[in-house]
Amino acid sequence: MVDVENRAIVLRLSLNLEVLASIVLSYLLDVNNFEESYSLGNKSSSLSFNQKINLLIDNRTITKEEKKKLMAFASIRNQFMHNVNANTFVEAFDHLDGLENQMRKLYPKNFGSDIKLEESLHYCVSDLHRDGVLILTSFKGGIGEKMSTEANAKVYSEFYENLEESIKYNFDRFLEAIKNHDSESIEKSNIIDVLKLIQINIFAKADTDKDVMRDIIDLLND
To answer: Mind listing the pLDDT tens digit for each residue in 31-60?
Structure first.
């Protein structure tokens, strides 16, 4: 008789990792709606969990060592989903050569003389899932670089928006100063003071602007 309780637990945890892997890839690939994606959604053409993980390795978002944990969890999931005789965690691990020893090395705290093996392996599956979530949300490698690039782009965009407003403001002041000047002949010193304010902003924009502003000020100083 098939016991669905453990299968339901592992399936729920597995779906969490599957969705998380798709979300990370959709961000990296600029896929707006991964659920409708041919590669990341639930269509027959969608990539397997292993293929998604390989893409994340290629992108340096996860390492080969980290993949081992994700694949260990996937192998346990496959036993519960496809092996009718795998009703308990002990039975599932019995069909996975060397995995119990691997868990003992990874999570020694889960094993003890006062803990039943079934409970120990259940704890290990939970720890594998937790580590899988941490691995997929580590924000390093390719995903870290993209996040950094986008953050910098936002900062620069906001900077230049403010720069444009500042330049416009100072130019308006410059024009206003000329219009309101009492004398028919405008003193160079008055113009230079305003231009220097503009200069501060333009110097931050580009070296070519620096040269232009220096030429203007040199002419006014002559």
So the answer is: 888 888 888 887 778 888 889 999 989 888
Number of domains in the chain: 2
Q: Are 45 and 157 within 8 A, CB to CB?
A: no
The CB density around residue 119, as the number of other CB atoms within 10 Å, is 14
Say if residue 134 is in the same domain as residue 154: no
Q: Looking at 103, 138, 173, which one is the last position of a domain?
A: 138
Domain range spanning residue 195? 149-221
How far apart CA 93 and CA 86 sit, in angstroms, is 8
CA distance 173 to 166: 11
**Has residue 206 got a pLDDT over 70?**
no
The pTM of this model reads 0.65
Helix (H) or strand (E) holding 12: helix 4-28
Residue position matching structure tokens 């939970």 = 126
